[in-house]
Amino acid sequence: MTKKRFGSWEDAVCWLRDQPDLRQLVLDAFYDDPLISAADRYFGCAEWAAISRLLHGRVGKALDVGAGRGIASYALARTGFAVTALEPDPSSIVGAAAIRKLAVDSDLPIHVVEEFSEQLPFADASFDVVFARAVLHHTRSLENTCQEIHRVLKPGGLFVAAREHVISKEFDLEKFLEQHPLHHLYGGEHAFLLKRYTEALEGAGFARLVVLSPLTSPINLFPYTVETLRKAIVTKLSRKIPAGPLWRAMLGSNAVFGTLLSVAEHFDNRPGRLYSFVAHKEPALGGVS
Asked: What is the residue range of 152's domain?
């Protein structure tokens, strides 16, 4: 996409926002200003709606790991949690300072801590929920991060790791990095085998691990929704075989379309495709989750 390289993520994002032809990428990544409008758009999107269903019935304290600009911290706070946003980058555009301003502008309970996830500065069993959006594949130690998250969760607590890049073979990593639209600007991207994620989570002590696959979860589909993905597939098929009404009729059933996506996932080996993980910490002896 570009040969430019930047010394900070803030510089890379500022350059990105100045490119008229990349406006949609900026919007899809929620890098646009004003930040409170971007955060509100995230709160209203299909991805967060799916995450909200996973959090339904849970209350208390939430930790947003690798919070970035704070869009998920904002969504968690609006959902009713007292939020701690963990973000090591001090940036006023893509980091801790941006989150602090967002908290003030929105008058929401978001406390910011500038630290890394591999050694969390919190006591054991501090949080009811831990959330991480596109964070685990950036960690310096996946295993340490999962262990620390498990440690700071209360018994019966929930960890949601959303939108993690997965590769099928180790040599797919280079291809993924070459194709990634933002890696060329600053670096820092990575991807792991699916087994590496699940082993790190299970090894940390998590139980009842649920893996959300790329084509069937709204969390992983974003910026597509099921409907926009259906339209895109119909358009693509119609270009090859001009029978739009037929394709629309065939794929109009949610059951049929869902079955098609489930079958397609068995053949989906795109380097860097997105998975999400829902992991539970065992409740205390005699307790309930």
From this structure: 9-214+270-280
Query: pLDDT for 246-280, tens place per residue?
Result: 888 888 888 888 888 888 888 889 999 999 999 99
Stated as kind and residue range, the H or E segment containing 103 is helix 96-106
User: Structure pTM?
Assistant: 0.91
- The tokens for 42 are 């995230």
Q: What is the pLDDT of residue 287?
A: 53
Do 129 and 254 lie in one domain? The reply is: no
Cα separation, 123 vs 182, whole angstroms: 35
Q: What is the C-alpha separation between 8 and 141, in angstroms, rounded?
A: 21
Taking a C-beta distance cutoff of 8 angstroms, is the pair 259, 91 a contact? no
Residue 222 pairs in a beta bridge with: none
Domain membership flag for residue 285: no
DSSP string, 144-175: HHHHHHHHHEEEEEEEEEEEEEEESSTTHHHH
Alpha-carbon span 264 to 271, nearest angstrom: 15
Mean pLDDT of all residues in 44-71: 97
29: left (phi > 0), else alpha (psi -120 to 50), else beta? alpha
Averaged pLDDT, 13-20:
96
- For residue 80, the one-letter residue type is G
Rounded to the nearest angstrom, the gap between the alpha carbon of residue 253 and the centroid of all alpha carbons in its chain is: 28
Predicted local confidence at residue 257, as pLDDT: 81
